[in-house]
Amino acid sequence: MLQKVERRPVQPESEPSAPPRKGMVWIEGGEFLMGADNFYPEEAPVRRVFVEGFWIDATPVTNRQFEEFVDATGWVTEAEIPANPADYPGAKPDMLAPASLVFTPTSGPVDLQNPSNWWSYVPGANWRHPYGPDSSLRDLADHPAVHVTWHDVQAYSLWAGADMPTEKEWEYAARGGLDGAIYAWGDTLNPGGRQLANTWQRMFPYQNRGADGWDRTSPVGFYPANGYGLHDMIGNVWEWTSDWWSAKPQDVSGCCQSSGSAASVNPMDPCRIPQKVLKGGSHLCAPNYCRRYRPAARHPHPVDTSTSHIGFRCVVRPAKAP
Questions:
Q1: What DSSP assignment string belongs to 289-310?
Q2: How far is CA 24 from CA 13, 91, 140, 162, 294, in A?
Q3: What is the CA radius of gyration of the chain?
Q4: Rounded to whole angstroms, how far apart are CA atoms 254 and 262?
């Protein structure tokens, strides 16, 4: 099903004065404290890891940028293609139609253990129609591209002459030089009452104050950059990383640590779809439901599934001397 996309001839440079493509920021390599011990168990333990220097997009890839890729390559996203029945044994025919998951706020409190209360599988929803077939990208050109699967973002990064960030690269960049801080800007969620990221502002999933004017995604760069000059590393949209999911981080040493696509599968998933690590939280993260608007937070997501709150950004690593 996947289409062929040629890699652009982008030559990464090690000098921070020469970004390999527009809008990238150089992150100098170094050691940092990765993870957290006092939030969710999959983030622990805190450990010291080393990251080599790399370039990273200053913002998530926007609809404007993704459209340039689609126009240049003719790429059709997975949300725009009927699913293969062989990959989803027992699925009802209507569940195989081109579709994607769209968030729908509820009218009042619901069981927070059941995400189907606020997620709808919407035929015709895709990156061009983020809320359903009757929606469009009008006024959304500078918002993050969403409804993209792992295969879609891989294709974009290949075309852009880039790669997807590893989990530790992403977290190192998100921290902005504040080693060990809870958030990308310090240890207080709303310092001085300021909203510093696009997150859910009251009781999820039915009451969102929206004081900043954004009920869903926001334009990239609307909120302040972190210490490295990167925007939206927290909130707005979850972002894909290249690491396969594991209940314990893959950079924790130990004889029983496993990794890889097979190990990433949710044992409750009858279709056995591998999962990648998402980072950063989204505009749906709220104190009463999902406190994953932090650099250390991590979440599994199936590689074939697109939603209205997942996007991505790219990295370029310096070429190694032979």
A1: T----STT-EEEEETT--BTTE
A2: 12, 42, 21, 11, 22
A3: 19
A4: 19
* CA atoms within a 13 Å half-sphere pointing along the CA-CB vector of 272: 6
CB-based contacts of 104-113 (< 8 A; 24+ apart in sequence) = 105/205, 105/206, 105/208, 106/205, 106/206, 107/206, 108/206, 109/203, 109/206, 110/205, 110/206, 112/204, 112/288, 112/289
pLDDT tens digits, residue range 178-217? 999 999 999 999 999 999 999 999 899 999 887 778 989 9
- Residue-wise pLDDT for 213-253, tens only, equals 898 999 999 999 999 999 999 999 999 999 999 988 876 64
Task: At 48, give phi and psi (nearest 5°).
Answer: -90, 125
Handedness of CA 196, 202, 204, 208 (dihedral sign): negative
Tokens of 109: 């409190």
**At 155, is the secondary structure helix, strand, or coil?**
helix
* Beta-bridge partners for 278: 240, 299
How many angstroms from the chain centroid is the CA of residue 28?
Answer: 22
pTM of the predicted model, to two decimals?
A: 0.92
Residues in the chain: 322
| Rounded Cα gap, residues 275 and 299, in angstroms | 9
Residue 244 near residue 275 (C-beta atoms within 8 A): yes
**104-302-41-236 Cα dihedral, nearest 10 degrees:** -40
